[in-house]
Design goal:
Elements: H1 2-13, H2 15-49, H3 52-68, H4 75-83, H5 88-98, H6 104-111, H7 119-130, H8 134-155, H9 160-165, H10 179-213, H11 216-229, H12 235-246, H13 248-252, H14 262-275, H15 278-288, H16 296-319, H17 335-338, H18 342-383
Helix pairs in contact: 2-5, 2-10, 2-18, 3-18, 4-5, 4-18, 5-6, 7-8, 7-18, 8-14, 8-16, 10-15, 11-12, 14-16
Length: 384
């Protein structure tokens, strides 16, 4: 009740600030969220309804089982989670579970590491837009992907004894929907999901501005300043981290060049990308709440991803030094990312998706061929 009253008071006291935040958030949705997410929402739905997930289960079963202890049908959620952006991976994981292609334990395991930021946002908005460096964007994306994979390797042991008794039926017949029905369903459900996400983006953008106006974020930053000072971070850095933990875009684009070293800027960016923010968590919760899946593995997985991403970017920035113009290149709001062109975001997403699909499917084909070779040899020996 107190929060609702404060929110209402904020809208009445600071209407111009609220309206300005909402306008910027709408521009962000139109120029970044829609082009970078909508095609992958449609693709993820088609992958499940047309039986692609089950075909992937046959092809990638060995790799997914060895790496993450989940069925091969979970491969589309993992791949789309790396290339589609928040919350495509989570939505795909829930759809695969509801389709009966994996167990509840495997779905919860998958949710812990499959919901990640897409390349269009990290390479375009954060790398080129925020840091004015494509190399920095690639390092952040590499650290982000490695953190996701590492979290998946950790969660392969989640409820491992229970998973042995409740393993999914991986040999079930491949059942697909008619192409026209699947396409119509994918487009309409994808559009509904986009509206859902944009609503959260706009809400949290306004909420961040109101929290600043009431002085709550600066107050919380002062409380966290002492423990964070042990890591070399200032009270201003604490403000940025708090903003990023609430809404990732606002936090990332508050990383100004006010004396913060480049390594610290990269570390905070990696942490925010790994954590994703309460806005993204609410988006994921809107999909999970319709099923009987637990939210806690996802929440724990995001904490681990944030920690691993921070560690990896610190290591990578030492191995690959960057010379980034941190004085004039950084921006202070979501205006810059909102001004990115629709075509640039869409092209970058599609190009990276093709490359990552190839990078994953080629090893899967190799493993599949190796697994089939002994069976062929045994059949040949039996005939002789």
């Amino acid at each position: 009740m107190v929060v609702v009253c404060l929110a209402a008071a904020g809208l009445l006291i600071f209407p111009d600030a609220a309206m300005d935040s909402a306008k910027n958030a709408v521009a962000l949705c139109l120029n970044v969220v829609v082009p970078s997410l909508f095609p992958f929402f449609v693709l993820s739905s088609l992958a499940v309804d047309l039986g692609v997930a089950q075909y992937a289960g046959v092809l990638c079963g060995g790799m997914m089982r060895k790496l993450f202890n989940v069925s091969g049908a979970c491969a589309p959620a993992f791949l789309l989670g790396l290339i589609g952006g928040y919350p495509v991976g989570a939505k795909t994981a829930v759809a695969i579970y509801e389709k009966g292609l994996c167990s509840k334990t495997e779905a919860e395991r998958l949710l812990a590491f499959c919901n990640n930021s897409g390349p269009a946002f990290i390479l375009g908005s954060v790398g080129a837009g925020l840091l004015k460096s494509g190399a920095a964007g690639w390092l952040l994306y590499l650290a982000h992907a490695l953190a996701s994979i590492t979290t998946g390797l950790v969660f392969r042991f989640y409820k491992i004894k229970q998973a042995r008794t409740n393993s999914p039926v991986e040999s079930c017949p491949i059942v697909s929907t008619k192409i026209l029905d699947a396409f119509l369903k994918s487009v309409t459900s994808g559009f509904a999901s986009i509206l859902n996400i944009c609503a959260f983006v706009i809400f949290f953008a306004v909420a961040i501005r109101m929290l600043y106006k009431f002085g709550l974020i600066p107050l919380a930053a002062q409380i966290l300043a002492l423990p964070l000072s042990l890591l070399g971070l200032t009270a201003a850095d604490a403000e940025r981290l708090i903003a990023g933990m609430i809404e990732i875009t606002s936090g990332l684009f508050s990383l100004t060049a006010s004396g913060t070293p480049l390594n610290a800027t990269l570390a905070m960016a990696a942490f925010m990308l790994g954590w994703a923010g309460l806005s993204v968590h609410c988006q994921v919760l809107s999909f999970i709440r319709k099923s009987d899946l637990s939210f806690y593995p996802y929440f724990t997985g995001k904490l681990l991803s944030a920690a691993f991403a921070t560690l990896y970017i610190l290591l990578l920035s030492r191995v690959i030094p960057l010379s980034v113009p941190t004085s004039a290149g950084l921006v202070s709001g979501i205006d810059s990312v909102a001004s990115l062109s629709f075509g640039s975001s869409l092209s970058l997403s599609l190009l990276t998706s093709v490359l990552l699909w190839g990078a994953f499917l080629l090893p899967a084909l190799f493993i599949r061929r190796r697994e089939r070779a002994p069976a062929k040899a045994r059949r040949g020996g039996g005939r002789s």
